[in-house]
Amino acid sequence: MLRLHFGVDDVARTRFSGGGLNGRHLALGVAEALNSLHPRISWRSPVLEVRATGSREVRLQGCGLLLQCVVGPFQLIMDTGVQPVLRYPAQARDQAVGAHADPLTEVLGRTRAKALRALENELTTTELARSLGVSPATASQSAAALRGAGLIATRRQGKEVRHRMTRKGWEMLVV
């Protein structure tokens, strides 16, 4: 079991990324937010316990923690001079009771995951918006985020902006 010991400043310096939490979870408070991350993560103040392979005690000593929801296994990254990162597998909150989770949606969010899947075929921004049932502005924002992550490529063709999935995007779909 991995045990991360939090000091007074560590809770305030802890950040979340990768789509594991939303506003509803954060409104519940720190304890509920941390307990809702994954069935194998639990908060027992002042310790965050991760039931994963190996045994390790870590004292954060005021630097906080970055919690990243990823498609992949648990991983603790401790680099000197950088905030420690705990990567935890994306998982639907109800998966522990037998439901099937969509890790891609957990990491990217529903609209961006749908956009990535829609871009198995090259589409214009307008076509992407229609396929997602959203406005062209929302489709453009989703495309920009996916492009920023290297999951799609965009090219201009006359007045159209065309998007297609990159190799990295394909690899995300087959994980």
UniProtKB/TrEMBL annotation:
Enumerate the transmembrane spans.
none
Gene3D superfamilies cross-referenced by the UniProt entry: Winged helix-like DNA-binding domain superfamily/Winged helix DNA-binding domain
The protein's superkingdom reads: Bacteria
What are the HTH arsR-type domain coordinates in residue numbering?
92-175
Locate the coiled-coil region(s) and give their ranges. Answer: none
Question: Which keywords accompany this UniProt record?
Answer: DNA-binding, Transcription, Transcription regulation
Molecular function, one GO term = DNA-binding transcription factor activity
Task: Give a yes or no for keyword Transcription in this entry.
Answer: yes
Enumerate the SMART domains for this protein.
HTH_ARSR
UniProt xrefs under PANTHER family: ARSENICAL RESISTANCE OPERON REPRESSOR ARSR-RELATED, HTH-TYPE TRANSCRIPTIONAL REGULATOR KMTR
* Descriptive protein name: HTH arsR-type domain-containing protein
Q: What species does this protein belong to?
A: Lentzea guizhouensis
Per the UniProt record, the lineage of the source organism begins with: Bacteria, Bacillati, Actinomycetota, Actinomycetes, Pseudonocardiales
